[in-house]
From TrEMBL:
It comes from Amycolatopsis methanolica 239. One of its GO terms (molecular function) is ATP hydrolysis activity. This is ABC transporter ATP-binding protein. Gene3D superfamilies: P-loop containing nucleotide triphosphate hydrolases (3.40.50.300). PANTHER family: ALIPHATIC SULFONATES IMPORT ATP-BINDING PROTEIN SSUB, TAURINE IMPORT ATP-BINDING PROTEIN-RELATED. The keyword Nucleotide-binding applies. Pfam families: ABC_tran.
């Protein structure tokens, strides 16, 4: 047998790594005695490692429902959600070991007021039984990453809204999640702070090679941050459009003045207007 032949016999078959996140035919229906609301219908989407996907859509089109379903907070009525090939939901039961690999940031930072910045950041590690020293070191490293070095001992009430969201992002990253899920994380911030946080989030996502699903109302924010922008249409929420955004990263704000950027924003806005 030739050496070459022997090699082909013994070599393990090469398997491609499963995608970071796979949604197949995901739907969600809310039922009450009075009414049934179909919030999501047939959402099928594959997100690869390190990708930043923005999700936009009119109010009530199901963005939050989608994110809560991805975060393991609300079971889908149908379809499959796989994180690196592992099923997040088993019927209406969530697999907690898959959930523990996710990081979630909401519009409200939801910090514990009686915990310092460092303790808030390290809380998920504490819940996993990490020792004091590991928690302190990781909190410091993350505080630095999100631009809060020196504020580790401060309390949430001493921070601005933007700083609180930075703490929430650091906390979500503390467990080195496979996937970062963000629902309007900067929705409550003023325009200037929001712009700065967009730049910061881009930097953090690139530095940590994070895979991100980012829900927003703001089309400019979605295009600035996204490698792809997924647009949902309302009642029931379904994917009406997916746009690639090819500008190289890191992007600075000047990219927003480029004609191509303006064209993408305009087209997405017109598509939203048509849904009125
Ligand atoms: N717990 C629930 N029970 C019943 N209906 C619900 C529930 N949660 C959401 N819905 C309905 O599902 C649809 C989608 O709501 P969702 O909050 O996901 O939209 P959204 O796109 O996030 O809206 P917004 O941008 O205003 O936050 C809406 O029609 C809403 O009324």
């Amino acid at each position: 047998m030739s050496a070459h032949h022997a090699e082909t016999l013994t070599a393990a078959p090469r398997q491609a790594a499963p995608p970071k996140l796979e949604l197949a035919g995901v739907g969600k229906e809310f039922r009450s005695k009075r009414a049934t609301t179909r919030a999501l219908h047939d959402i099928t989407l594959t997100i690869s490692d390190g990708e930043f996907v923005s999700v936009i859509g009119r109010s009530g089109c199901g963005k939050t429902t989608l994110l809560r379903t991805l975060a393991g907070l609300q079971s889908p009525s149908e379809g499959q959600i796989l994180v690196e090939g592992r099923s997040l939901w088993n019927g209406s039961r969530v697999d907690s070991s898959v959930v523990s690999e996710l990081g979630v940031v909401f519009q409200d930072a939801n910090l514990f007021p009686w915990y310092s910045v460092a303790d808030n950041i390290a809380l998920p590690l504490k819940l996993r039984g990490a020792g004091k020293r590991e928690r302190r070191e990781r909190a410091h490293e993350l505080a630095k990453l999100v631009g809060l070095a020196g504020f580790e001992k401060s309390y949430p009430r001493e921070l601005s809204g933007g700083m609180r969201q930075r703490v929430a992002i650091a906390r979500a990253l503390s467990t080195r999640p496979k996937l970062l899920l963000m629902d309007e994380p900067f929705g409550a911030l003023d325009a200037l702070t929001r712009e700065r946080m967009n730049a910061e989030l881009q930097r953090i996502a690139l530095a940590t090679k994070a895979t991100v699903v980012f829900v927003t109302h703001d089309i400019t924010e979605a295009v600035f941050l996204g490698d792809r922008v997924v647009q949902l249409s309302p009642r029931p929420g379904r994917i009406s459009e997916i746009r690639m955004v090819d500008f190289p990263k890191p992007r600075d704000f000047d990219v927003q003045t480029e004609p191509e950027f303006g064209r993408i924003v305009r087209e997405l806005r017109h598509a939203l207007d048509r849904q009125e």
